[in-house]
Amino acid sequence: MAINYAERFERQIQQQFARELTSSALDTNRQYSFIDAKTIKVPTITLTGYKDHARDGSKNRGTVSNTYQAMTLTHDRDIEFFVDEMDVDETNQVLSAANITAVFNQEHAIPELDAYRYSKLYSEYVSLGGTPDTTELTEQNILSVFDKMMEDMDEASVPQSGRVLYVTPKIYTMIKNAEKIQRILDVTGGAANVNRNVRSLDEVSIVTVPSDRMKTLYDFSEGFVPGEGAKQIRMILVHPSAVLAPVKVADVYLWNKGETPDSAFGYLYQNRMYTDLFIIKAKIGGVKMNVEE
Predict the structure, then answer these.
(1) Which three-class secondary structure state does DSSP give residue 136?
(2) 3-state secondary structure at position 173
(3) Which residues fall within 8 angstroms of residue 154, CB to CB, at 6 or more apart?
(4) How many domains does the chain have?
(5) Which pLDDT belongs to residue 79?
(6) Does residue 54 form part of some domain?
(7) Amino acid 187: pLDDT
(8) How far apart are CA 70 and CA 40, in angstroms?
(9) Beta partners for 274?
(10) Calpha distance 255→268 (Å, rounded)
(11) 82 occurs within a structural domain
């Protein structure tokens, strides 16, 4: 009987994803339900507003409607490895299920999930009518671009608390060296006496993402590589409530020797991830981004 190592090592796997998956904050909005094996439905409630009160005892009745936005998951991935019984024995258990899972997550599963989410965030944003900012960022203008994104979110009534700014390492360095921030450092005693790790800006959490995980397009034929014509995403400002990142399947199985025809002389390791990312149409104001032109 196959052992589901995703359940046995659930805590360790969750800790590894929480530590190394930069997009984990996008998986916090759970306001959806599956209507079949691959489709979720998202409710949107619409209400009418106040009307003038009449002092004759009558009441104003408003209207309420509930519509659903259906979304179909498409990112369905799997891989399996055969490990000869002698390889397990001769490596002193280095090729165990736990170790294979840890290495595969670190080198493949986690980077790919990040890459898929950021690229899908871009394609969803554009398909819903969003226009990415293409300003060439510099130390002189980056805070102005950020301020404009924040202003647009404020105008769209996006909650101020909980916003996240995803940036490449180059853009993070640019923020640390931004003209206005440097001026503050000079006034407070100079950069040499100050911890210059900037982890938030105007109470917005900053998350640094390797640049190879923040492209507009990927080819997922084997692993992930930038697709033809892919552009660099430099900066994404998002409120997680605007995004859904459902995970339908996240399984890791190990078939012991002899349990299947394919595992007659060793162990069969199988890993599957079925997930996707969507922007809620009514909340597109909670997503802003800067992309190379």
Answers:
(1) coil
(2) helix
(3) 160
(4) 1
(5) 93
(6) no
(7) 47
(8) 6
(9) 76, 249
(10) 5
(11) yes
Residue among 292, 134, 119, 94 at smallest CA distance from 213: 119
pLDDT at 94: 45
Classify residue 215 by its DSSP letter: B
Q: What is the pTM of this model?
A: 0.83
Locate 91 and state its tokens: 């490596």
Q: Is residue 98 part of a domain?
A: yes
**Are 234 and 290 within 8 A, CB to CB?**
yes
pLDDT number for residue 99: 77
The tokens describing 93, both together, are 């258990």
**228 assigned to some structural domain:** yes
In angstroms, the CA 104 to CA 117 distance is 18
| Mean pLDDT in consecutive groups of 10 residues from the start of the chain, 293 residues | 60 70 90 85 87 91 88 94 71 61 87 97 98 97 95 96 97 88 53 58 91 98 97 98 90 78 78 94 96 96
Cβ atoms within 10 Å, residue 195: 7
Q: Which tokens in the block code for residue 57?
A: 């005892």
Could you tell me the residue range of the domain that residue 106 belongs to? 3-47+63-291
